[in-house]
Structures are given as C-alpha cells and as structure tokens.
C-alpha cells in the first residue's frame, strides 16, 4: 500500500513538473516571417594583402564586364601534365565529348578572349566515382593563381537516400537511411570554398589568347565545357510583384502541399542524412519510445555551400507561399542563413538571404517580409526547391574578424620576439618604441571590432555571448594602446582573447538549422501549428518516462538471433555503433548468415565481465596493451591458428601487428593505426627563411632561428595525469628506431634500453628540454594557430583537427614526414613508432569460426572504406578514420598530396612490441626523463637505474606466467 502511494506521488510530481515547464516555456507556432538585416556591413579586410580576392577586386574595380558568353569545350585542351587524362564520347548520357580529369595532374586550355574585362567562370562537370569526397581544383590564369582563394575551388557531389523508404530494425526503430552517390551533370560557378563571398568569383581576362589551367587536388571529374559569362541580374521582390500584377497572375486554388524534410531527393554531402529528433511530439512522424526518422539538418547542415533539395508536384499554375517548420536552437545571439533556388534559379533578390533567428522551440516560418508573405509563381508540374547554407550578411563580418585575427597574431609574434613568452615583470621593454606601429594596430583593430560588435547587436537586437567576446577584445586593445607598458604583463590574456576570436569565427561560420517539413500553399492559407499542445507535451513526457524502464537502449539495431550468432562489444559512441550495426545488417549477416548482437559498453567493463564469464565473443577498439595482457592469461584467442590468417595479415603493415604478437601467436587484428608527422606553418617559415627540416641536424638549425625570434619547436610528450598505461615517448622512439635500437632484447627477456644506442637516443631526447628549454606541456594545435609554435611533430590525426578548427589559417600550413637521421652514405632514415587499436577474440568465444568471419569482414578493405566514409559523412572531416588497412587508407578522402606524404611516412613506421611487464617501459622511461629534466641527473645514470626496475618487472611476470 505504501509503495502504491509512493508511485502515485511520483506520478503527480512528474505531471506537475511537465505542466510547469509548459507554462514557463509556452509554445511558439508561427514566426512573423523573414527579417532582413540592415545595410550590408562593409568588410575591413584583405586589401593590404596583395594575394587576397578583395585586393584583386579593388585592382580591377573599374574594369568593364562584357555582356558575352565564351565557351571552351573540355576536349579542346592544349596541354596536360602528370596525369592520365581521357577524352570520352557520350559519357553518362552527355550529348557530345568530355575529358575525364584524374585526381592528380594539370590540364590547360587556351581561351580566345574577344573583349578584355571581368568574367565569371563556370564548368559543366560530372563527378566521377572516387573516394566520396568533394572535388577540389586549383585555378591558374596564364600560369599564376590570380588570388589566394582560387588555390582551392570546390565542386559538389550529389547524394541521396539509398532506399525510397525508411527501413526499421526488428524492434520497430527506424534506421538512418544510408547515403549513396547519385551523380548527375552539373553546372557550377567558380566560388569561394569557405563561403566568404556570396557571388561567384570574377576573373580578369585580357583580350587575346589566355591560358586557363586546372590542377587536380582531390578526386576525378569529367568536364564537358568551361564558360566565361556574366551573372544575370536578379530582380527584387517588389520588381517581381509588379510583373505578377501586370501579367494578371492569381493565387492558386486552396491546397496544401507538405513535403517532409527527410524526403529530400538530393543533397551535397552524405552528412546531410535524415535524422531523428525527439524534442517535440509535434514532429512528423512521431513515437514516444521508438526512434523515428523525422527531420533533416541539425548540426550536420551547417557549413557554407551545403545544400538540400526537395521535389514538389504542383497541381495547377498560380501564386503560392512557402512555409518551413524549422528550429534554430544552436546560434544564440546570431542567426542562420539560407538561400533558396527553384529549378536552379534564385526567384528574387531576397531569397539569397533567408534568416532564421534563434529559437529553442519549433516554428512555422513563412518566407516573407514582416507580416506579408512572399508569393512564388509556380507552373503546374514538378519543381525542385534547393536550400543552401550561405553566410549572407555575416560573411563580411567573418572576413573582417579573420583579418583582425591574422593581424593581431602577427603583432603577438612581433611582441613575442622581444619579450619571449615569459616576460620579465620588472623590465620595461619599451615596446612602443621598438614596435612603433603597435599602438596604432591596437587602436585600429579596436575600432574595427567595435563596428562588428555594434552591427551584430543592432542586427540581432540583443547583447549575447557572440558580442561579449568582441567587446572583451576591444576593451583590452584600447587599454593596451593607452598603456603600452602593460602589454608584456598581459600577453597571456591577449593570446587567450585572440584565440577567443578564432573560436568566434568557427562558431559563427557554422549555420545549423533543423527542418521538419516545408509547405507550399496559396497565400493566406491556414498553416498547422509548429508546437505541440500542453496535453500532447504532457503525454509525451509521461510516455518517455515509462519507456525509459521498458526499452533496451544498450542494444543497437536488430536483436534477432540466427543459428550462428555472436556477441560483439564496442566502446565508442552511439553514432559509431549505429553505423557499424547498419553495415552488419546490410552486408555481413546476409553474406554469412551470422547474426551479431552489438552492445555499446563502457571501456572498463571487459575485464570484470570476462572474469565473470559474461564477456563477449569479440571486443572492438581495444588499446594495444590489452590483447597481449589477455593472451598471457589465456583469455584471448590465438588468431594465427586459423588457416587463412596469413592472407588476412597481408592487409596490414607488419608494424600494425607487432603489438599483438606474443609467444609465437597473434592475438588481435589492428583496426586503427596512427603515427607522428611534421606539421609546419608555410607563411611563418617563409618569413624566417626556413625550410621544413629533413634531418635532426636541420631541426637544430631551425631551433636556433626560432628561438632567436622567441618561437618554439614542438615535440610530443605524454601527459602523466591519469595515464596508467603510458606508452614510450614518440620522440625517443624515433631517435631509437632511426639508429637501429630496440626496446627489448631479441628473446624478450630483458629491456634493451641499457644499450649504447638507447643511451645515445635518450641523451639527445632529454637535451631538447635541458639545453634548448622545450616546454614540458603545450597545447600544440592552439600555439600552431597563433604562430608561437610554427613547426612541430604531432600525431597525423592533428591534421583533421586543424582542418576543421583553424579556418583562419587554411592554406597556410602543411605536413610532411618527420626529420630523420642521416647515415654516412647520405641516405636518411625516418622511422617512427605507431599507436593502434585492435579487434580481439576472447578465448571463451562460443563460436570461434563465426567470430573469425566477423573479424575478417570488419578489417576487410571494403568494410573499412565504407565505415571510414560513413563516419566522415556523419560527423565531418574531423572524424576521418585512421584505418590500419593499407588499401583502405588510400581510398579514404585525403587530398592526393597529403595522402602521398602519409604513405611516405607509413613506410617507415615500426610497432612497439608488448611484453609481460612491458607496461613499466613507458612509465619508467618517463620517470628517467623527468629525473634528468627536473633534477639535473646524468641521463645515462637515470636511465640505467630505471632499466633495472623494468627488468625486474619483466622477470617477475615471466615467472608468474611460467615463461622460460
């Protein structure tokens, strides 16, 4: 009885809570319409930079724009270099010839220009099947890139849902539709890939024969023709409405055409797959406990240039209004912007910039101005509506702030060259005399950033965190300009504030919105409410509460068991697990008739579960220390006993298998393998007259120049905090392996770190910190952005981070193989050690043959390629997958030059073997290092002392496991 009363009380409290939420946050149903910005902000950027597009525009501002179109056929090229170019007839339905341009090489055409002037340029192309990434080309006119932004021109692929309907698993949950390419011939103008310029680029062509070259940076494309042309003038809505009136166009008959967002027929990226949103019961379709695919966009639809296209079938000619059920709950204090085209054309000027203001709830937004909806003339039949992410009137703000960040970073480096990053607080550096332009730069940038903050505040009508970041920088700049003697003491906070501006650029550049559906209806038609009623919301909250006790949220996808069935545990996120389960249900289970129960578990649960006899058959994403540790205890299966193991092992480099070899057996297959590369800032090294170092002697030479300018070279060093399984340091491993050193003796019974080679490598490693004062801890990606550390060695996955998180230095950095050790014959060795994760089979697996089939399928080239592309499609370039499969890495969407650098380094990679007691190696190597650096101990003595501890632990473990 008491238990029943308690349940009733809890239910009453839940109902009261839901009701209070609804009262406090009332639903908003219809937006007052599209609000447009003030007059365009005039960007203060780039005109001083002779390589910028702004400077190029200024140079040719008074040049004529001839009203003519000039076409050059693709097959009429005059020269090709470094690639297999092919002329094809009738390619993919084309009426005529085209040239297929491969993923590397340069093709050149001669363009017979009749009239000098500024022209837009567009290309009619077809995306040839490749690595599923965007197509990139570099443009040159008469052998030169006209401006920096033409270094990378981006051309879209076309994607769509693989199936026409949404599939479900055997528990009634919708499965995310897989995205496949749906290539078609497209006509695309040459535009800014970053989206900072709304209109297509204009290029100056002199009268006469002009050379136009395209160099392949990534992916293949077929080119039908290239055209020089002028963009058509787009009328304003007021002008278009007059033509409606003069033509006697009338509103269509009452009808409401509703197209669900998830039913988009094409999109520009696989990241734009339909999504499941459970924020409101008003979404269509809806279920209180099951997953329903009911929206599109969200945080995946945010980057400039990304587009989604829907098809509508209009029953009769007439004037229609367009309404969207949307939610923009990510950008507070700013707005997201989209452009709209119908059948490939912008209907009127206002549709270039459709604003979506911040709102935590769903809204029905009618495209219009104020209370007046815009009217669109649609003829009977099918029409394609495309919405594209555009920066709109935010673009000049971003260009301005990006220019400010670059100038302030440049000033920061100038100050750093005088004060170092640890200025003497008692010294007057007289910076205003030694850098005469410093105060002027601070004052100028304060004015510029103030104008950006004021514009943003007026445009949004609120003071938000987006404005606060700008104002904080302005306050500091003004104060430092007024009191320049305080600059050295405030250098750290100055760097943090400039870094904040970089983050501001990243945040504001992303423009996410989520869409449930769009409606095409006659003007004045009553539209459905966007938000749920209070009763619907209450029912939803109560249903979700009950479902939390009845639904199994740990299992992923189908749970039906076949005759052959295995259990697989995965320890990463739900997104990864859902992608993997989708692939299992699509290919693995149908091909092998083996069902897989995939469970998402915490990383630390495998050991207790195995001890309790409740472990899985296969464990994925295991650290490289785990398989051998389990093998010592007879808990991991020896994969080398399978008859086709040698064939499977050829998928990987020997270095990938090294950590999983033990006592003559192999106990796991590598999934991921990553290793260090050398990252460098091209602009700063050019300023300093340096080249990327090829040998360690080059590194020492570069250090002298860098430190003269108070800059630093970065070497990786492990964080000791909460790092029980510390791996040997990457720099030490480089120096050791490049000199033929090893971590253990050949029989594996002792550490080999007491050898002369090891002692020499250890001494050279510690000297970077004792003699050259390298930092023991540094945030390399951020210091790389600011230029404090313009060069350094880091894991190659840092590439993904910099590509996504440092847009202000795009095209200003590169990476290459690490410095090597030069041999007497002049050759250079570039060995590095890799880190990896693995998939392993447990010894107590119920069906080892079925488990081995799964492991072979998972590490196969096609599976790894598909998984890598799916993850990058779902989460963007930051999630590029570092597969250990040799053939698969080549097929992932790396730019050709970058992949070639990775391939060169991978050839030098060596794995670090795992031994009984080997966990002491990394730990005590670090202890010896700290003794030398912090306590000034002799390197040889420090390492010798700790080698004894390592040997003792190895001997102890060998006795424990009865190893001879």
Commentary on this structure:
With 964 residues, this protein is α+β, with helices and mostly antiparallel strands. Helix content is 34%, strand content 22%. It is built from 26 helices and 43 strands. Strands 1, 16, 18, 20, 23, 26 and 28 form a 7-stranded mixed β-sheet that branches. Strands 2, 4, 5, 7, 12, 13 and 15 form a 7-stranded antiparallel β-sheet that branches. A hairpin with a 2-residue loop joins β24 and β25 (372-373). Residues 18-38 have low confidence and may be disordered.
Level of helix content?
Answer: 25-40%
How many angstroms separate the termini?
67 Å
* Fraction in beta strands: 15-25%
| Biggest sheet overview | 7 strands, mixed
Mean pLDDT: 89
Task: Report the strand count.
Answer: 43
Structural class: alpha+beta
Count of discrete alpha- or pi-helical segments spanning 4 or more residues: 26
Which blocks of ≥5 consecutive residues have pLDDT under 50? 18-38
What's the Cα radius of gyration?
31 Å
Task: Sum up the overall morphology in one term.
Answer: globular
Short description:
Helices cover about 35% and strands about 20% of the residues. The protein is α+β, with helices and mostly antiparallel strands.
């Amino acid at each position: 009885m008491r238990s029943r009363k308690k349940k009733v009380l809890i239910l009453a409290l839940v109902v009261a809570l839901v009701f209070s939420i609804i009262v406090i946050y009332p639903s908003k149903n219809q937006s007052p319409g599209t609000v447009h910005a003030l007059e365009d902000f005039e960007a203060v950027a780039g005109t001083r930079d002779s390589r910028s597009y702004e400077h190029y525009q200024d140079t040719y501002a008074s040049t004529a724009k001839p009203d003519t179109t000039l076409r050059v056929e693709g097959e009429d090229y005059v020269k090709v270099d470094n690639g297999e170019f092919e002329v094809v007839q009738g390619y993919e339905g084309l009426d005529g010839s085209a040239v297929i341009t491969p993923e590397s090489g340069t093709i050149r055409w001669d363009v017979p220009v009749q009239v000098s002037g500024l022209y837009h340029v567009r290309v009619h192309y077809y995306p040839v099947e490749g690595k599923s990434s965007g197509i990139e080309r570099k443009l040159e006119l008469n052998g030169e890139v006209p401006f920096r932004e033409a270094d990378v021109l981006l051309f879209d692929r076309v994607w769509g849902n693989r199936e026409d309907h949404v599939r479900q698993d055997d528990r009634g949950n919708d499965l995310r539709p897989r995205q496949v390419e749906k290539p078609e011939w497209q006509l695309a103008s040459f535009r800014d890939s970053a989206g900072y310029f709304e209109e297509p680029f204009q290029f100056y062509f002199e009268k006469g024969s002009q050379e136009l070259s395209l160099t392949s940076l990534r992916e293949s494309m077929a080119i039908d023709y290239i055209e020089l042309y002028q963009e058509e003038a787009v009328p304003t809505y007021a002008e278009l409405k007059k033509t409606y009136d003069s033509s006697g166009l009338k509103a269509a008959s009452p009808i409401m055409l509703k197209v669900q967002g998830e039913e988009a027929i094409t999109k520009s990226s696989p990241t734009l797959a339909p999504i499941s949103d459970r924020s409101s019961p008003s979404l269509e379709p809806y279920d209180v406990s099951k997953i329903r695919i009911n929206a599109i966009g969200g945080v995946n639809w945010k980057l400039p240039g990304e587009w989604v296209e829907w098809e509508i079938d209009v029953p009769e000619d007439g004037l229609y209004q367009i309404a969207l059920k949307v939610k923009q709950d990510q950008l507070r204090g700013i707005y997201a912007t989209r452009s709209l085209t119908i059948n490939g054309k912008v209907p009127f000027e206002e549709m270039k910039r459709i604003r979506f203001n911040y709102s935590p709830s769903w809204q029905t937004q009618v495209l219009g101005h104020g209370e007046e909806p815009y009217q669109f003339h649609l003829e009977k039949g099918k029409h394609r509506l495309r919405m594209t992410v555009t920066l709109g009137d935010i673009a000049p703000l971003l260009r301005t702030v990006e220019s400010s960040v670059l100038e302030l970073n440049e000033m920061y480096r100038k100050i750093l060259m005088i004060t170092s990053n640890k200025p003497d607080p008692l010294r007057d550096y007289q910076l205003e005399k030694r850098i005469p332009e410093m105060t002027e730069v601070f004052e100028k940038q304060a004015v510029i950033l103030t104008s950006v903050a004021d514009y943003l505040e007026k445009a949004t009508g609120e003071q938000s965190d987006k404005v606060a970041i700008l104002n904080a920088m302005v306050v500091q700049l003004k104060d430092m300009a007024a009191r320049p003697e305080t600059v050295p003491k405030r250098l750290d906070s100055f760097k943090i504030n400039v870094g904040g501006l970089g983050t501001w650029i990243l945040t504001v550049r992303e423009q996410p919105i989520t869409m449930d559906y769009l409606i095409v209806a006659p003007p004045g038609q009553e539209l459905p409410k966007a938000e749920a009623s209070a009763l619907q919301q209450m029912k939803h909250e109560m249903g979700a509460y009950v479902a939390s006790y009845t639904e199994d949220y740990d299992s992923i996808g189908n749970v039906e068991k076949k005759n052959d069935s295995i259990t697989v545990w995965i320890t990463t996120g739900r997104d990864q697990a859902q992608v993997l389960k989708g692939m299992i249900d699509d290919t693995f289970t149908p091909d092998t008739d083996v069902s897989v129960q995939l469970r998402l578990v915490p990383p630390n649960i495998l050991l207790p579960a195995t001890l309790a006899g409740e472990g899985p058959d296969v464990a994925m994403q295991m650290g490289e220390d785990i398989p051998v540790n389990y093998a010592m205890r007879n808990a991991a299966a020896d994969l080398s006993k399978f008859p086709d193991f040698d064939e499977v092992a050829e998928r990987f480099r020997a270095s990938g298998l090294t950590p999983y070899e033990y006592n003559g057996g192999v106990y796991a297959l590598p999934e991921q393998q990553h290793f260090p590369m050398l990252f460098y800032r091209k602009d700063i090294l050019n300023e300093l007259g340096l080249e990327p170092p090829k040998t360690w002697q080059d590194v020492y030479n570069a250090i002298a120049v860098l430190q003269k300018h108070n800059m630093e070279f970065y070497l990786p060093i492990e964080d000791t905090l909460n790092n029980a399984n510390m791996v040997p340091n990457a720099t030490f491993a480089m120096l050791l392996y490049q000199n033929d050193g090893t971590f253990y003796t050949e029989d594996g019974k002792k550490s080999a770190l007491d050898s002369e080679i090891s002692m020499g490598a250890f001494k050279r490693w510690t000297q970077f910190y004792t003699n050259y004062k390298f930092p023991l801890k540094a945030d390399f990606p951020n210091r790389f952005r600011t230029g404090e550390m313009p060069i350094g060695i880091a894991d190659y996955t840092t590439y993904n981070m910099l590509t996504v998180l440092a847009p202000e230095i795009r095209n200003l950095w590169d990476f290459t193989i690490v410095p090597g050790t030069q041999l007497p014959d002049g050759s250079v060795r570039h060995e590095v050690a890799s880190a990896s994760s693995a998939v392993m089979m447990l010894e107590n697996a119920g069906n080892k043959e079925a488990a081995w089939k799964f492991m072979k399928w998972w590490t196969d080239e096609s599976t790894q390629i598909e998984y890598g592309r799916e993850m990058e499609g779902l989460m963007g370039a930051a999630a590029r997958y570092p597969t250990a499969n040799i053939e698969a890495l080549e097929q992932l969407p790396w730019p050709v030059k970058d992949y070639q650098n990775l391939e060169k380094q991978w050839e030098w990679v060596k794995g670090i073997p795992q031994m009984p007691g080997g966990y002491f190696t990394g730990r005590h190597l670090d202890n010896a290092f700290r003794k030398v650096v912090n306590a000034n101990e002799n390197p040889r003595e420090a390492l010798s002392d700790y080698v004894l501890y390592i040997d003792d632990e190895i001997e102890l473990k060998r006795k424990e496991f009865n190893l001879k």
